[in-house]
């Protein structure tokens, strides 16, 4: 697996498959490059180059004590793009990765980016404030942190079925759920907490309004991790001219449960 160094000396791991127009996949909080195993072969077989990043503290990347704020994580993404000299990119961000994509556009512009897909993205702003009455109170964020620090495996185990919305008939094996759990628990505990907090506090509303490239927003109606009324629908209202697609039986893990539909929706965006 190749690595590169960010501006603060952190070594980040990435994967690079195929040739052709590049698609950069940005993983969910607590997951790494392996989550995209149902997307990479689909797009490589169709002539695209797939680049995947393990954010700091995740997967095979370094585990520093700092740099988990949204700006630094967006700059890490920019460093990978510049390291590989990528242009004409399709950026695909899942969950907290969607926030990193949105902040990348704010901090580094759209010069290298041709289009964007936000998948189950934790956008636009989660925290309850006077000008964000749809948000959640700070206490909910910190209650999760307390659970991480008491019994992190239990927190993930309690949400595993809901992550894939198996109660709606999505065909997900116990083995796949176990695999997802293991991948989440391989993330550094420190990074788990710091990225969680940073994601909760990041306000992306202004940045989303400024996006000018073609954008796809995809969300599951049954998403228990990023409630659609708080996230997907509000994001679609903010991004000018975006295409919004809602999957009625979708939970948070659309990349697995609805991989065929998701892949084709991203492909339609690219072919636009």
From TrEMBL:
Keywords: Hydrolase. InterPro entries: AB_hydrolase_1 (IPR000073), AB_hydrolase_fold (IPR029058), AB_hydrolase_sf (IPR050266). Residues 22-258 form the AB hydrolase-1 domain. It holds the Pfam family Abhydrolase_1. It comes from the Bacteria. GO terms for cellular component: membrane. GO terms for molecular function: hydrolase activity. This is Pimeloyl-ACP methyl ester carboxylesterase. It comes from Streptosporangium saharense.
């Amino acid at each position: 697996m190749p690595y590169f160094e960010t501006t603060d000396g952190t070594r980040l791991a990435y994967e690079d498959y195929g040739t052709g127009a590049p698609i950069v996949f940005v993983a969910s909080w607590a997951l790494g490059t392996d989550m995209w195993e149902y997307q990479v072969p689909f797009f490589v077989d169709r002539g695209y180059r797939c680049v995947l990043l393990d954010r700091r503290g995740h997967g095979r990347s370094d585990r520093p004590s700092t740099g988990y704020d949204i700006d630094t994580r967006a700059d890490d993404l920019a460093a990978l793009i510049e390291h590989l000299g990528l242009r004409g990119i399709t950026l695909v961000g899942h969950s907290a990765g969607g926030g990193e994509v949105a902040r990348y556009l704010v901090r580094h512009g759209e010069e290298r980016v041709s289009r964007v897909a936000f998948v189950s993205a934790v956008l636009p702003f989660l925290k309850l404030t006077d000008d964000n009455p749809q948000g959640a109170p700070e206490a909910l964020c910190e209650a999760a942190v307390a659970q991480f620090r008491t019994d992190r495996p239990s927190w993930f185990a309690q949400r595993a079925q809901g992550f894939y919305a198996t109660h709606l008939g999505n065909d997900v094996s116990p083995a796949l759920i176990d695999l997802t759990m293991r991948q989440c628990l391989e993330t550094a505990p420190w990074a788990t907490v710091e990225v969680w907090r940073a994601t909760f506090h990041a306000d992306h509303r202004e940045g989303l309004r400024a996006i000018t490239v073609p954008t796809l927003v995809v969300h599951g109606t049954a998403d228990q991790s990023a409630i659609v009324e708080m996230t997907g629908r509000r994001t679609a209202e903010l991004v000018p001219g975006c295409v919004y697609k809602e999957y009625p039986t979708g939970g948070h893990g659309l990349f697995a449960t609805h991989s065929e539909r998701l892949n084709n929706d991203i492909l339609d965006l690219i072919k636009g």
